[in-house]
Amino acid sequence: MHPLSIVFLIIGVPAAVLLLYVFVRGSGGLRRYVITRIGLTIPMIFILASLVFLVLRIIPGDPVTSSLGPKGSPELKARLRAELGLEDPLIVQYGRFLGDVVTLDFGRSLVGGQRRIVDEMGERFPATLELVIPGTILALGIGLLFGTYAAAHRRRAPDYALRMYGVVIYSMPIFWLGLLFQLVFAVKLGWFPVAGRIDAVIGTTVERTTNMLLVDTLISGNWAAFRSVLRHLVLPAVTLGLILSGVFLRLTRINVIETLQQDYVTAARARGIRERVVVYRHALKNAMIPVITLIGLQVAILLAGAVLTETVFAWPGMGRYLVERISVRDYTAVQSVITMFALFVALISLFVDILYSLLDPRVRY
Fold first, then answer.
1. In 305-344, which positions are buried (b, 16+ CB within 10 angstroms) versus exposed (e)?
2. Do both 321 and 339 map to the same domain?
3. 115 backbone dihedrals φ, ψ, rounded to 5°
4. Backbone dihedral angles phi then psi of residue 330, each to the nearest 5 degrees
5. pLDDT-based confidence at 33, cuts 50/70/90?
6. How do residues 225-276 score in pLDDT, each as one tens digit?
7. Mean pLDDT of 85-112
8. Is 108 helix (H, G, I), strand (E, B) or coil?
9. Residue 62: band (very low, low, confident or very high) from pLDDT cuts 50, 70, 90
10. What pLDDT sits at residue 166?
11. Considering only CA atoms, which of 140, 141, 151, 144 is closest in space to residue 275?
């Protein structure tokens, strides 16, 4: 099975189970809400993809010149442009592009050997997913824990310190934090590798099934490769997770403070329930609904942050691939990557909205 298909199965199966539950067990209002959200998601993807298609053809640059260099003869350039379909009318190119989007077959790259873009994304997208998932888990863990702790100690020293952390870490440039971690933990202390995804020699021993190396090394029992992948993953994942933890911390703190002022919390305290139980079991549970919504909104920021993180740490993911293709004006690859990002963000946002509607019935009406 193609690695990209495996990735979509990982994302699509939970979404399919949730949709099945909605249409089998959900109320009429819930079903109408979900159908409306699906109906809004599809045109949003096509609008974004169309904007990318037009912008790439307006900005200066030529993939043929980037591929052949300045020494390519006019005859060779003309022939290559014809082979790549760049001489066709814009409406024809647009129709071909929409057909590729519908079939998820994005054609071939304009430069670099003209490989199938699906194959290139099958190598790169799992790497980005392997970086984004632990980064998200770290951001949520820090944000929820510290945000709740700050709310429980409102207007005291821990609250002021954690609020300051949230502001500073979220406003910090992600590439600067990545370079700082490289300098301290890789160059000075030597605890982690400076860049890359796995040691070059060990990487040749990995049997790649999903192209998510942590998963592949676990499946094959290649523990030396697993340790190498884990050591390479720590610095970029921590960089990405720390940057996003600030916004989760602040949102959690605000919502827990509001929840702690509700009558049922006062009643729980009056019954003698321990403060820790009141805060972490009752208040945090009810404050999670806005945080869940924010997760869907932060997916786009995660992918944007992954572009910078992958560039700093030479991580061979979709973000670095996008930067490489933009530099050579590879229209097909760039519009395919951004369309894939849009599809991924739209699916995650749809999943979060459905989950939100299950947790909070008010949004269905």
1. bbbbbbbbbebbbbbbbbebbbebbbbbbbbbbbbbbbbb
2. no
3. -70, 160
4. -85, 90
5. confident
6. 888 888 989 999 999 888 888 888 888 888 888 887 777 777 877 877 787 7
7. 75
8. strand
9. low
10. 87
11. 151
Element of type H or E holding 330 = none
Query: Which residues touch 75 (CB under 8 Å, ≥6 apart)?
Result: none
The rounded distance, in Å, linking the Cα atoms of 343 and 37 is 14
Residue range(s) defining the domain that contains residue 244: 120-327
Answer yes or no: do 141 and 176 share one domain.
yes
Contact between 216 and 251 under an 8 Å Cβ cutoff? The reply is: no
Do 280 and 151 belong to one domain?
A: yes
Number of domains in the chain: 2
Residues 75 and 9 in one domain: yes
Task: Write the DSSP string, 207-250.
Answer: --SSS-HHHHHHHHT-HHHHHHHHHHHHHHHHHHHHHHHHHHHH
Query: Residue 304 and residue 319: Cα distance in Å, rounded?
Result: 8
pLDDT band at 114 (very low <50, low <70, confident <90, very high): low
The pLDDT value given to residue 288: 75
pLDDT on residue 60: 67
Find the mean pLDDT for residues 133-155: 86
Same domain, 89 and 145: no
CATH of the domain at 309: 1.10.3720
Three-state SS for 116?
A: strand
Residues 6 or more apart whose Cβ sits within 8 Å of residue 43: none
Both 350 and 259 in a single domain?
no
| 62 & 152 share domain | no
Alpha-carbon span 212 to 171, nearest angstrom: 30
**Using 50, 70 and 90 to split pLDDT, how confident is the model at 360?**
low
Please, what is the Cα angle at 326 between 196 and 295, to 5 degrees? 65
CB atoms within 10 A of CB 110: 26
What is the rounded CA–CA span in Å between residue 9 and residue 52?
26
Residues contacting 348, CB < 8 A, separation 6+ = 11, 295, 296, 299
The pLDDT value given to residue 136: 84
Based on the fold, state whether residues 179 and 317 are members of the same structural domain: yes
